[in-house]
Specification:
- By secondary structure, this protein is of the alpha/beta class.
- It has two domains: 19-192, Rossmann fold (3-Layer(aba) Sandwich), CATH 3.40.50.1950; 200-427, CoaB-like (Rossmann fold), CATH 3.40.50.
- The protein is built from 13 helices and 19 strands.
- It has helices spanning 32-42, 61-68, 85-91, 103-111, 117-123, 137-141, 143-154, 180-192, 235-246, 274-285, 332-337, 361-371, 408-427; strands spanning 19-24, 46-51, 95-101, 129-133, 158-159, 163-166, 172-176, 210-215, 220-221, 227-228, 250-255, 267-270, 293-296, 303-305, 326-328, 346-353, 375-380, 389-395, 400-407.
- A hairpin with a 5-residue loop joins strand 9 and strand 10.
- It is elongated, with a radius of gyration of 26 Å.
- Bound molecules: flavin mononucleotide.
- Flavin mononucleotide binds next to helix 4.
- Flavin mononucleotide binds at residues 25-29, 52, 54-55, 102-105, 116, 134-135, 139.
Amino acid sequence: MATCSRWQGVRANAFAGRHLILGVTGGIAAYKSCDLVRRLLEREASVQVVMTEAATRFVSPLTFSALSGRPAMVDPWGGVENQMPHIALSRESDGIIVAPASADFMSRIAMGQTQDLLSSLCLAREVPLWIAPAMNRQMWMHPATQANLTRLREHGVVVWGPASGEQACGEVGDGRMLEPHELVTHLESALEVLPHQDHLPLRGLLSGRRVVITAGPTLEALDPIRVITNRSSGRMGFELAAACVAAGASVRLIAGPVALRTPMGAERVDVETAADMHLAVMAAIADCSGRDLFWAVAAVADWRPQTVASEKIQKGAGPGLGQLVWEENPDILSAVGHLPAKARPYVIGFAAETGDLSQIGPKLETKFKRKGADLLVGNIGPEVAGQAAAEMVVFDGQTTTPMPHASKSEQACSLVLQVARRLRDREGSCP
Ligand SMILES: Cc1cc2nc3c(=O)[nH]c(=O)nc-3n(C[C@H](O)[C@H](O)[C@H](O)COP(=O)(O)O)c2cc1C
């Protein structure tokens, strides 16, 4: 089986789909947090920056807004949309990191004082709080700061750093904020063991089941240089893999060439062509039973050139690209859908369609019959590169249920909930 070596060995991404609050307090090190925002976004987390008034003296909120793609928040009284930001912000997040954390901020939260937005939301939180102190060495060593530190740790706050070295004031000692890359490493370890907010309702729903998921595009070679592929990003399949892992399933994710990190806990197999994907799926399905699930999310090429030219097909020489002879690729969804009942997992197919979502019913009905699926999910293409949200419908052979526009992570969770419910009804087990 050909593998896409570019993506092999890519580490699982603990940041993907995470929403973090980055608190910034008033210290010289605030400028380093601009880099921290960039690094977190690069790793596919979303970041809401909350600044203290003092922090805005060091870095403009505009800089953080531009970097994070969301307005940086300062005022606890501001915001028409969100009347209670001091509570709501942390409810929507996976965790709060405060970097730099000033001596005064540490004192405020150790004492339970809440006169600014950041301290209020740290007090009203249900999520982890990580802080990266930064201050002059004397401020750090002062018994008041050290007493606050002890108290914060007792309250469950996790403290990263500070480091020792030359300080902005010219003195040398303890009190330097950890570098952004060091904070990212700490965060990664913390997030690896932290359940996703979206995934909490899924716990245990698919325990003891195997799940095979295909994701992304396939890629068919015309000659050593050219390929035919499609616009699938693979994101939906990867979100589903993450949701199924969270639901307790053992997940094998068979991915075409995509630029996505492997969800934590999923076993990934990389393929290029539809034929390779077919082989990988049939090998994975061989271990499955009727209790297991197959999600056919990949956008598999229907056709491939009958022969792949060994040299680049030249313009104007011979028959050229216009005369290529095509042959049909295996229909993976149909192959699994028509397996004998004993060996056949519960089969969920995805169908990308163009046009109006309300009009795709008849197309889904035809596909449903042809493919032998248990459930068909229709979504509207063409895919916009990197698109993180989708509008979908679910068709079970009789009823079409619309799924409102939501992030792909939310859609994945909703689909896993729906499928778990259907499996439970089918198997007649107790709730
Ligand atoms: C130039 C300058 C640099 C400062 N650097 C720090 C610092 O690195 N760490 C710190 O704890 N306080 C520092 N302070 C003091 C804080 O800005 C001050 O205590 C402020 O009230 C903190 O407010 P906040 O915790 O709401 O952000 C600095 C003050 C100034 C004027």
